[in-house]
Amino acid sequence: MKTDELIHLLAADERPVQRTAIEQRFAVATAVGIAGAGVLMLALFGLRPDLLATMALPMFWGKLVFAAALAAAGVALLRRMARPGMQVGHAALWLAVPPLVLWALALVALAQVPAAERAPLILGSTWRTCPFNIAALSVPAFVAGFWALKGAAPTRLAWAGAGAGLLAGALGALVYALHCPEMATPFLAVWYLAGIAIPTALGAVLGPRLLRW
Q: Transmembrane region positions (predicted)?
């Protein structure tokens, strides 16, 4: 077959690609991640028994807002990393905002109590399990995020994988908040971020291996 004939054959099967195809894939991955984390949370941990009463507390919604904001920043990063040659750009700034706000609130909370009471605020009662629980709940979103990236064209594979892991961890934390009994900002600033960091680091490691063309 001649080169011109091959080009004509390939071009004959060309179909226009939707401008929002990548965003649609990430929307599906996010929905699957939340649903999967919800099923796992109910199966492994269950809802906290006083959830309805807890919903009246501002800090409960603060946990959800933090996780949702970080997930939105993760999607913003993925939208850039899914396209070839794109730089991180302002997505890095949006990624930094939720943790910085949470750390600032944690420092204020610690400054308002005696030194002897600071360690309990940081450790809570579930510090040994919280990060691993969040990481476990992130698994469905982690798989879905890599599926979404496989249908795109990332070139910065470590960043893309880290973005998928970050989104997965944030969604895992979002769902885990429906079970977690901890409400202190110092606890969240350490152990929630540790739980989100686990799939983020794993994504950075696996990205170059699983996403290469």
A: 26-47, 59-79, 91-111, 131-149, 156-178, 190-211
H or E element in which residue 163 lies: helix 157-176
Give dist(CA 126, CA 180) in Å, integer.
9
**Do the Cβ atoms of 30 and 141 come closer than 8 Å?**
yes
Are 146 and 82 in contact, with CB atoms under 8 Å apart?
Answer: no
Euclidean distance between CA atoms 192 and 145, whole angstroms = 20
Q: Counting every residue, how long is the chain?
A: 213
Distance CA 122, CA 171 (A): 22
N-terminal to C-terminal alpha carbon distance within the chain:
26
Closest CA to 187 of 115, 135, 116, 130: 130
Q: How far is CA 168 from the centre of its chain?
A: 4
Q: Which residue has the tokens 């990548």?
A: 22
One digit per residue, the tens of pLDDT, for the chain of length 213 reads 556 665 555 455 555 545 677 888 999 999 999 999 999 999 999 999 999 999 999 999 999 999 999 999 999 888 888 888 777 777 788 889 999 999 999 999 999 999 999 999 999 999 999 999 999 999 999 999 999 999 888 888 998 999 999 999 999 999 999 999 999 999 999 999 999 999 999 999 999 999 887
Closest CA to 190 of 97, 104, 129, 127: 127
Rounded alpha-carbon distances, angstroms, from residue 66 to 34, 102, 103, 150, 179: 15, 8, 11, 28, 16
